[in-house]
Amino acid sequence: MNLTLHVWRQTSRDDAGRFVTYKAEGISPDASFLEMLDVVNEGLNDRGEQPIHFEHDCREGICGSCGMMINGVAHGPLGGTATCQLHMRQFKDGDEIRIEPWRARVFPVIKDLIVDRSPLDRIIQAGGYVSVNTGSAVEANTLPIPKQIQETAMDAAECIQCGACVAQCPNGAAQLFTAAKVAHLGLLPQGQPERYERVVNMVETMDELFGTCSLFRECEAVCPKSIPVDFIARMNRDYLVAKFKRG
Amino acid sequence: MELNSKIPPGPVAEKWSWAKSHYKLINPSNKRKYDVIVVGAGLAGAAEAASMAELGYNVKCFVYHDSPRRAHSIAAQGGINAAKNYQNDGDSIYRLFYDTIKGGDYRAREGNVYRLAELSVNIIDQAVAQGVPFAREYGGQLENRSFGGVQVSRTFYARGQTGQQLLLGAFQALERQIAAGRVTMYNRYEMLELVVVDGHAKGIVTRNLINGRIESHAADAVVLATGGYANVFYLSTNAKASNATAIWRAHRRGAFFANPCYTQIHPTCIPQTGDYQSKLTLMSESLRNDGRIWVPKTQGDTRPPASIPESERDYYLERKYPSFGNLAPRDIASRAAKEVCDEGRGIGPSGRGVYLDFADAIKRLGRKTIEERYGNLFEMYHDITAEDPYETPMRIYPAPHYTMGGLWVDYNLMSNVPGLYVTGEANFSDHGANRLGASALMQGLADGYFITPVTIGDYLSTQFGKKVPNDRPEFKQAEQDVAARVDRLLSAKGTRSVDSYHRELGHIMWDYCGMTRTAEGLTRARGMIRDLREMYWRDVKILGAGEEPNQALEKAGRVADFFELAELMCVDALHRNESCGGHFRAEYQTPDGEALRDDANYAYVGAWEWKGDGADPVLHKEPLVYEEVQLATRSYK
Amino acid sequence: MSWIASFYRTALGKKAVMAVTGAFLAGWVLAHMAGNLKIFMGPEHLNEYAKWLRTMGAPAMPHSALLWIVRILMVVAVWLHIQAATQLTLQSREARPLAYTRRDNVVASYASRTMRWGGVIILLFILYHLLHLTFGVHVAPAQFVENDPYHNVVAGFQVWWVAAVYIIANLALGLHLWHGLRALFDSLGLNHPNFNVARRWFAVAFALVITIGNISMPVAVLLGILR
Ligand SMILES: Cc1cc2nc3c(=O)[nH]c(=O)nc-3n(C[C@H](O)[C@H](O)[C@H](O)COP(=O)(O)OP(=O)(O)OC[C@H]3O[C@@H](n4cnc5c(N)ncnc54)[C@H](O)[C@@H]3O)c2cc1C
Ligand code: HEM
Ligand code: HEM
Ligand code: SF4
Ligand code: F3S
Ligand code: FES
């Protein structure tokens, strides 16, 4: 199939950036979206134009490296999938595709479609862990965990830190990402001792960097792991409780 | 040069505790005076960076990713082994040790493997304490599944994401230390040289992937946890960026490369569909627990699977290996698949594929159970192939997946270059000639959490006051070498892209150094690789500059190293006149096509020394002594 | 009380304030509507009610004391609600200074996307409404009669555009409540599979009741049912 791409090109952080139009010809519908870009890049390289830079690694929808706005939707039209798992059969021959990088104040563009998502790490550093040193763990089966709790914690733990929730949210909020980690650890017995400390610290860091939540639910819709917004309510509850507990 | 594996004295079960109680220690208040560089933050790297920081060492951690959490370990699906014997099915540390030795086709070190089995139980405890949400029974206890090559259920898993969940555990521990200021994290930094001062590893040279700046970093010890090199085949199940540059650069600086030819071809991957294809996707081996593998009995049978009657199907694994059936080890299962396809009984458009059929399992257990066990794998398969595995059998074919070979290390995971430690897939240590499923995560974490944090103290205690500044001539020299390489690549200004060369190299390796190898083919391949490399340096076309983010340039350096490594792999495969594990030489097989090992002449680790460009590498042998298990022909029949 | 400051500093704190004030305002609007609906029972009933508003709480409290308390609470609530709304809106604006050239909404409802402008419309309406029926300043040509709300309302609504203003404002209010009353629960963390469905219906029902109830009055006047 043949497509017309409008791709955001930006040589560096300081460059203004612009859209450039490319033709993608003879693309197999079985190719993944990134493989389609590979083909385009081969062509560009031959023509002496620098290939389109985009982040990717596992190409299995698990490392969270890939991600771009495809026709105005993070990770493209097929919900619940990362860009690398989006396949060209989702498009029609002759389609026009607009490709733009994630946009948020704290996600500056590094080059073309690559942005700096390190602020998400900062939220984890604020408390997204259980403080247990290597070697001090108890025998694993000494704390049984109800299957239901474990399953829900797992739903939250599936987050791949791709940043699509931020990218898609009209408010540029990182609520879903933060809430997922708060829920993952807050649900499990191991996470209890630091539960309220954690939520306050993570929320306050999130708040310095990102927007607010108006419950648009856009994040849930584009999340490659379909993490439910209910976790956001859970985070709000824990935060309120924590504030009243700690004063 | 004599290779000293430094295996502690005493019976195999006592060695590790001997080590722990005899190695020199560093007093807590002095630990912060030592700088340790950890390159890599996969399971191995993140675990050791965090654990060493917890001990009080000053850690600098480097990754080429934008965050430590992206390491290729994230992709591991199936699970991690541990000798917990929760299932009461007769598992034990000894059995895990034995299975691993046997699975590795008797080409691994007893001491290391036993320690690995011993530590496996602590890993699960540690991970659970970190909040890793392993699958559980209704009673709230941890659940297990069985994995290839063994007859007990000892594999722990978290949906199809065991790797991601374990890595998040280690990553979060690491982030905690970063926040505490004990680890300095260098994201988007690529290590391009190891710096050796007076015979000791004292630092690295890196390239900042955003602005191309080339910098030196000094330390009292360097740990490489940089993963495997299966991407030498271009198409593999590895993440696109996985590469051998870190270990190869170290190899060129004196570190021996052990058993490079031991590569694992994974039996259950989604077959290739076209040449635009950029990677092969693994379908977790756990699928073989419930899926049955078959091909039509007759050649060129193009009927859709549904309309091929039971009587005309060949469940070849169940036929050939009745006692292990579909759970035969990877090397065996992969070769069997290749055979039936070579016989012209392969299925799918390319004829390079076999069926993995869940019809019986769904009949037996119901769709819901299958969904619970493999739901997201089935989805992934559907996303990629647009076929529904609940309705029609999966199409699978072997693909390069894991590399048992790596830098040579002693029992303490230190290479022959003092102060250079190598952990995880990057070293050669525990899997011999073939790795059993769910044991790489185990090894990476054992290395990272429990081994290097202990053994490194023994070395560091000898380095007190031997710090070197990073402006020593050795560093400046290394910086110049890196800069020169970058310029050379950029100035080639040739005609073909880096990928096109990588793809071509991959074809050579797959055809001649893949699942079956011959002396004649390997010799031919070596020549082809040399020619291609020579052409590469003249003709590669890389646009853009070195002082900006430049993905083509990054790849170019890695591919250049793959060329040299590929050649060494052929040399190693050619010298090893036997078939063992992942290394199958067509000349050495039993009448019924099984691997023919030669313990009399090849029961050793082949560690290669770099002798300079163009010069032949020199082989050093570390004999493998078996005190605990008898060398026996591996049989899964 | 510094914890209140630190609590309000984060968006989550502000949202909680919005939720609480929003809930209060919603309750007030409901009561207000209930009272106003007496209009259908005839002048004396409504005027009676208006008088009661001022005497409620008596004799325990002085004349129209309770009314003033409610008025003050009302003003405070609207103020906090608006202040939080504005701060949240600004924080979100700053979070993405460089807008996308194209960003499609996948699921965001119309109601959720119009909260901000809806709010502004409501605010303007309240001001207009106060001038019209409380202070009787000549925003509507109809003559304003002190202490005869019935006359004031009916006379007002007989002017088609005055009625139109009310109808539009209440449609805006309906949308605002539809999303608002649902969001409110999440902002306060009141989320549980057992009543999440009920939550949604509550929000819809509440919004409908308010809108229909309030709109029924101008419509009735226009149709000449009330005169
Ligand atoms: C698809 C797939 C599924 C798998 N499933 C399983 C499984 O179910 N069970 C199991 O036991 N094993 C499994 N494996 C194998 C296992 O995942 C890997 O062997 C293991 O994760 C390797 O971990 P590592 O820490 O050694 O290296 P990696 O996780 O590969 O990490 C390498 C790190 O080094 C960094 N790095 C590398 N080079 C440089 C450089 N030059 N400069 C700076 N940084 C550098 C990278 O940024 C990265 O952080 C699977 C492998 C694959 C490909
Ligand atoms: C009687 C009048 C009003 C009622 C009953 C009301 C009710 C509500 C409720 C219940 C919410 C949900 C709060 C939450 O998300 O937790 C809300 C949100 C909101 N209100 Fe109001 N409100 C009223 C007036 C106003 C006014 C006058 C404004 C602004 C000028 C306003 C602006 C907003 C905004 C912007 C939100 C969304 C906040 C966010 O989600 O970020 N509202 N309102
Ligand atoms: C058709 C619908 C409505 C009618 C007929 C109506 C009628 C009235 C009347 C008659 C008064 C004066 C009461 C008095 O002074 O005794 C009044 C006051 C008021 N109304 Fe309404 N109203 C309507 C809708 C609304 C709405 C939707 C809001 C808010 C969003 C609102 C907010 C107010 C306020 C704040 C006052 C002043 C209350 C006070 O003096 O304490 N009204 N309304
Ligand atoms: S919550 Fe979903 S969208 Fe947001 S970072 Fe995690 S995986 Fe990506
Ligand atoms: S889209 Fe944004 S507004 Fe909230 S529900 Fe999701 S974060
Ligand atoms: S490339 Fe890893 S998630 Fe897409």
Overview of the molecule:
The complex is a heterotrimer of chains A (247), B (637) and C (227). With 247 residues, chain A is of the alpha+beta class. In chain A, 36% of the residues lie in helices and 11% in strands. Chain A is built from eight helices and seven strands. Chain A has a five-stranded mixed beta sheet with strand order 2-1-5-3-4. In chain A, a hairpin with an 8-residue loop joins β1 (3-9) and β2 (18-24). The longest helix of chain A is centred in the last third of the chain and has 17 residues, at 230-246. Chain A starts with a strand and ends with a helix. Chain B is of the alpha+beta class. Chain B is built from 16 helices and 19 strands. Chain B is globular, with a radius of gyration of 24 Å. The model of chain B has no long low-confidence stretch (mean pLDDT 95). With 227 residues, chain C is an all-alpha fold. Chain C is built from nine helices and no strands. The N and C termini of chain C lie far apart (54 Å). Chains A and B meet through α1, α2 and α3 of A and α3, α5, α6, α10 and α11 of B. The structure holds flavin-adenine dinucleotide, protoporphyrin IX containing FE (2 copies), iron/sulfur cluster, FE3-S4 cluster and FE2/S2 (inorganic) cluster (FES). FE3-S4 cluster (F3S) binds next to α5 and α7 of chain A.
Key terms for this structure?
heterotrimer, B: 637 residues, five-stranded parallel sheet, five-stranded antiparallel sheet, globular, C: 227 residues, 9 helices, binds flavin-adenine dinucleotide
What topology does this entry show?
The complex is a heterotrimer of chains A (247), B (637) and C (227).
Chain A: E1 3-9, E2 18-24, H1 33-46, E3 69-70, E4 73-74, E5 96-100, E6 109-111, E7 114-115, H2 118-125, H3 147-157, H4 164-168, H5 175-187, H6 195-209, H7 218-222, H8 230-246
Parallel strand pairs in A: 1-5
Antiparallel strand pairs in A: 1-2, 3-4, 3-5, 6-7
Helix pairs in contact in A: 2-6, 3-5, 5-6, 5-8, 6-8
Chain B: H1 15-22, H2 28-31, E1 35-39, H3 43-55, E2 58-62, E3 80-81, H4 93-103, H5 110-130, E4 155-156, H6 162-179, E5 183-186, E6 189-197, E7 200-208, E8 214-218, E9 221-224, H7 245-252, E10 257-258, E11 263-269, E12 292-296, E13 313-314, H8 316-320, H9 330-345, E14 354-357, H10 359-385, E15 394-403, E16 406-407, E17 420-422, H11 440-460, H12 473-492, H13 498-513, H14 519-539, H15 551-575, H16 599-602, E18 604-609, E19 618-623
Parallel strand pairs in B: 1-2, 1-9, 2-5, 9-17
Antiparallel strand pairs in B: 3-4, 6-7, 7-8, 10-16, 10-18, 11-15, 12-13, 12-14, 14-15, 18-19
Helix pairs in contact in B: 3-6, 3-11, 4-5, 5-11, 13-14, 13-15, 14-15
Chain C: H1 2-9, H2 11-36, H3 43-55, H4 65-95, H5 110-113, H6 115-134, H7 149-158, H8 160-187, H9 193-222
Bound molecules: flavin-adenine dinucleotide, protoporphyrin IX containing FE (2 copies), iron/sulfur cluster, FE3-S4 cluster and FE2/S2 (inorganic) cluster.
